[in-house]
Amino acid sequence: MDSVVVKVGGNELDDSQFVQRFVAALARMRDPRPVLVHGGGKEIAVLQKQLGLQPVFVEGLRITDAESLGVVEMVLSGSVNKRLVAKLVSAGASAIGLSGVDLGLIRVEKMTHPAGDLGLVGAVREVNARALWGLLEMGMLPVISPISLGYDGQTYNVNADHASVGIARGLGARALVMVTNVPGVMAGGRVIERLGAAEAEALIADGTISGGMVPKVRSALEAVAAGVPVARITDIAGFESFAAGCAIGTAVVGS
Ligand code: ADP
Ligand code: MG
Fold it and tell me: What is the predicted pLDDT for the residue at 247?
């Protein structure tokens, strides 16, 4: 059995048309078997602001103190995860909602980052691929919130791009597809069709690639370096065509 890891960002998950298209395409995928990893961007920011907390990012990564972790976990493992599962089950998929904590799916250590202390942000160390394969063999579609478990028993916030590459590596997935709100990695107003490591780092250094696209591109590169044959960054239209067997968006390649 082959698997494909699909990662969806948080930006579009409050857009019912996007969710409908996304869920319909995902529920139709049979071979390779999909595993979904999701973010929760916009909704986390809304709830943080309602609670008087200010979202702060370093290179696209959310600085997470204990209070913010509570919010992030509530949104990701609660409302967003269950909303996606509800839609997928309604569309006929045997979707099961989990977080990286459940079954110890994603074990992490506190991330160290050159730009400073990110707080309770985890770096993926191990993935319980056996448990995921068990679910896939039972015909289930795992829907994974990236909140994960530290070896210290603490839960950590993990960037969903980082979680998705960890899971793709752990499963030995055939592909990692990152679905976001842009048609691919853009430069000069156009989608880059093939992006290698050296060009990516140059575009990050000159600011062409910024914000949330930084961890996304680096995660895609890491997936390819770890042997995942295909890593793509695309939007909903690109995902629909991927699910239908043809590829658009940015293909991230090893070199
Ligand atoms: P997601 O929720 O899918 O992870 P992010 O907001 O984290 O989405 O990352 C996608 C965003 O990255 C885009 O909406 C865009 O604003 C930003 N971005 C920065 N640089 C680029 C680039 N060169 N090409 C495309 N998007 C970029
Ligand atoms: Mg992001």
Answer: 82
> Which of 119, 110, 95 is closest to 148 using CA atoms?
110
Tell me if 34 sits within 8 A of 26, measured CB to CB. Answer: yes
Q: Which residues are catalytic?
A: 7, 10, 41, 161, 216
Joined tokens for residue 162: 């980082």
Return the residue matching tokens 């960037």: 159
Ligand 2 centroid vs 207 CA: distance in angstroms?
A: 16
Tell me, in angstroms, the distance from the centre of ligand 1 to residue 212's CA: 5
Q: Summarize pLDDT for 120-157 with one digit per residue, the tens.
A: 999 999 999 999 999 999 999 999 999 999 999 999 99
**CB neighbours of 46 closer than 8 A, spacing ≥ 6?**
none
Is the pTM above the cut of 0.70? yes
Q: Are 85 and 135 within 8 A, CB to CB?
A: no
- Ligand 1 pocket by C-beta < 6 Å: which residues? 9-11, 39, 41, 60, 180-182, 185-187, 208-213, 216
The mean pLDDT values, 10 residues at a time, for the chain of 255 residues are 94 89 95 96 87 89 93 95 96 97 98 94 98 98 98 97 98 97 97 97 97 95 97 96 91 88
Cα–Cα dist 39/214, whole Å? 15
DSSP track, 143-197: EEE--EEETTS-EEB--HHHHHHHHHHHHT-SEEEEE-SSSS-EETTEE-SEE-H
